[in-house]
Structures are given as C-alpha cells and as structure tokens.
Amino acid sequence: MVDQTDAALDAIEQAGVKLGAARAMVQRAIVGQRDVVDLSLAAILSGGHGLLVGAPGLAKTLLVETLGTVLGLNANRIQFTPDLMPSDILGAEVLETASDGTRAFRFIEGPIFCQLLMADEINRAGPRTQSALLQAMQEKHVTVAGARRDLSPPFHVLATQNPIEQEGTYPLPEAQLDRFLFQIDVDYPDRDEERAILLATTGSANAHVEPVLSGAELIAMQALLREMPVGEQVVEAILDLVRSARPGSGEAGAELNEAVAWGPGPRAAQALMLGVRARALLDGRLAPSIDDVSALAKPVLVHRMALNFGARAEGASLPSIIDGLVSRRLGQPVAA
C-alpha cells in the first residue's frame, strides 16, 4: 500500500513538471493572460470544456490553436453563424454510386470529429445546432441518421463568446451552460503586457510552439488527476460554497435569496472537485487547498447562477455576490 502511494505521488510530481513545460510553451505565443491559460489547461486536464468570454482581439482563437499544438491534440475550428445547421458540424451521409452502378451511403465526418474543438462565437448558432453540440459535449458521441458515432478521446470544447455584441445571437440555454466546466473571462491586458504583445506580434518572426504532450499522455494525466487526494476540509469547503449559492436551500443567506433566481446544481461541486485538483497539479502540488476553491469559485459558479429581475434592476452583479460567498463561507479574502 505504501509503495502504491509513493508511486502515485511520484507520478503526480512528474505530471506537474510536464504540465509546467506545457504552460511555458503556451506562453511563448500568449503574452500575459496567465489566469486564462491556467484555467483553460485546468478545464482540459479535468476532462471538461471551457467557455471563453471576452471582447474581440484578445487572442482567444490563438490560445485554442496553441493549446492544440502544445497538448498534441487534433484541433478544428468552427465559426458559428445563424445559418449553421447540425449537419455542418456533425457530418452527414451521402449517397454514392460505385463504378459497377451500385449505390451506398457513406458517412462524411464533420469538424466535430476532433480532439479539441474551437466553437467560435457559439451563441450565434441556432438552438438546433447548439443541441447537437450539447450531446457531443456531454456524451462524447453524436447521433447521425439514427446511428451512434463515437468521438475520439480526449474530446474537449473551448467555445468563445463576445459579451458586447448581442444582436443576432441565441443565448445559450442553462443546460448547455452547465456543461461548461469553467467560464473563463478574458480581460484586456495591462500596459506592460500590451507593450510586449505589440513588440512580439508586429515583427518579422512569430513565436514558435512545439508539442509537449500527446493525447495519450493527456488521458493518463486525466486519470491520475482523479486519484489525487482531497482533504476533508477542502471537500466541506466545496459543499459549503455550492450549497450556499442556491436560493431557498436553507444554507443561503437572506441577501442571496433576495437577489438570485436560481443557483448551481451538483455539477458545480463536481467541477470544483476536479478543478481544484487540476490547479494543484499545474502548480506542482500534491493536494489541493481551500485557496484553490476560492480561486475557482467565480469560473465555476458565475455561469450556473442567474439574478432575478429586481437584482438586475438595482445593478447587482453575480461576481460580487460570489465574492461575498467566498468571504463569508470560506473565510478567504476576495481576490483583486
């Protein structure tokens, strides 16, 4: 038993070193945005999907392309538009005539048959197309012409969404939002970062990135992540935070009950449990801490909650409500 524990700890340490190299390689191409890179890596390492929310021009597309290269994944990109149909992403069967005159259907795979899918401006697609993507995200397979077709593991979706321009968009349904492990907010760079971006991207040479991991190594790390020990104190902190975010639960405060229409379900606790392990592994630590729960509270909860009409009219915001929950329930200072 002791030997097995030692072997697991050694494997976690080795994975941390390899992931550190992957992070450094990604940051050759992505200047700044350390939290965005870490959250994206954590989402993939946890076996989940990420929703990147930010204004145009903040390197969201470049980030996904870079992650595909560094993690050794087959990556595709779909530009979502209102006229996009499910068959455009899933694929379709076509009737072909052979040289001898016989006819048969042949399935042509759509771009969803990859390991890392960038769903660019996902909220511009109609409900039917979003539903097709939802099945793939949750079940890791699609159904075309009544036949099940499995996606090659690992399969991850990093979707982008513009928070500014909402004309001609279809808001993502709550069920699909819940399938995203994290909502990753991509903010503007600070002055020093923007200066570095300016110098790095307007010269004659572009940053070169190389694969650090392979798909098989990533799958092994995802399995290892689920073996990482989590202390009882961290488990209780996750439960306290998630349950206190549900209005009418008996564990929520009066302020939250008055402001929040609906709160996170059990998937939020699952996302936190996996996310804190991933964050620890990325930092080379052998177990997560309550600091990890605090750091991941907003990425996990903000898209799984909704303000009621009165709270929106008064200018309340979900991030500030979540900060208050973290401060009260976890006794953690609110991050700047």
Outline:
Helix content is 48%, strand content 16%. It is an alpha/beta fold and 336 residues long.
Strand content: 15-25%
Number of helical regions? 14
Strand runs, count: 11
Category from helices, strands and their pairing:
alpha/beta
Helix-strand pattern: HHEHEHEEEHEEEHEHHHHEHHEHH
Write down the CATH topology of the domain at 231-336. Helicase, Ruva Protein, domain 3
**CATH superfamily membership of the domain at 231-336:** Magnesium chelatase subunit I, C-Terminal domain
What's the main sheet like?
A: 5 strands, parallel
- Mean pLDDT value: 86
Rg, rounded, reads 21 Å
Helical percentage: 40-55%
Oligomeric description of these chains: single chain
Largest beta sheet: strand ordering: 2-5-8-1-9
- The CATH architecture of the domain at 231-336 comes to Orthogonal Bundle
The CATH class of the domain at 231-336 is Mainly Alpha
Measure the end-to-end span: 43 Å
Low-confidence parts: none
Shape: globular
